[in-house]
Amino acid sequence: MSRSRKEKPLTTPQMLALFLLIGLFIPLTVILSLVPSSWYTLEGYEDLGIVEFQASEVPLRVPSRHGGKGDRYVVYRALDNSGLSFKRIYSRLTAERKVAEGERIFCRVLTVREKRFFLRKWETQFLDPEADSAALQAHLDLCRTLSRTTQVFGACYIGLYAAAALRRRKLRQAEAVTSVSPDSRPR
How far apart are CA 114 and CA 35, in angstroms? Predict the structure, then answer.
């Protein structure tokens, strides 16, 4: 005897919960669990020294925080041909002025010793040249705390979603058993 079961469509809150699960919490939890613990200590970084960078271009428009025409990224490229670069956000006029003047800045560059091919973007830190090691360690401790908090929150969300899905399945099964009418029972 085959029973056709009609699936109820997901409600908007259920679709949002599923979207957050698949699109945010599972990937974020997995990515953060792949970050090596050495990235959160000073010993995990190699100091490349102080490098001079020059503002070179304004490639992208950033959505404005103030409702204006938008902010711009300024790309700073290393003058020592090492290939290092980073971006900072400025207002449109300030960004264009910094590039036109060819602003030069110095940054202390640190790179992680334990490299991971899938986390290339976060392997290099660009710091103020006057930053001391205590300030850097405080920054790394904050990053570790944020990472752990996000992982715990993600794991809790995944667990709660799984529990809710199992409960919903049990309720549907119980509803299907109680909805069998006495006329349809075999005699």
Answer: 10
CA distance 115 to 134: 23
Residues forming beta bridges with residue 55, ordered by sequence position = 76
What is this structure's pTM? Answer: 0.59
- What would the pLDDT profile of 54-111 be if each residue is shown by its tens digit? 998 776 666 655 555 667 888 898 999 888 888 888 887 888 899 899 999 998 888 8
